Write the structure tokens for this entry.
Amino acid sequence: MIRRYHLSLLLLCLAALISCSKSETSRVTIPAEFTDYISGYTSGKISSEGEIAVTLIQPVAKDKQAKSGLFKFTPAVSGKPEWVSDKTVVFKPEDKLKSGKKYNVAF
């Protein structure tokens, strides 16, 4: 009985290790010419209802905060940017993003 328990536990641990194996991920980095301007951004996997945020190093005056044209998505995504502070702009998609789909975003 104890041996069967140990075997079951071993198989369960093995299954957990296999399911947690590393999957292929792409590393996102800020190009060197932008590190003086951008301090953070959304990257990696996000919820289909997620937002994409970019945080700048320097504040942007309200009269200089663009209301469109800040984000370019491939494939295209409809939505609008919203400044949540003088340093952070968030893109809010009109519709849910497609689950499992890869999007590239240029700012």
Notes: The first strand starts at residue 38 and ends at 41. The beta strands are 38-41, 52-56, 72-74, 79-83, 88-93, 104-106.
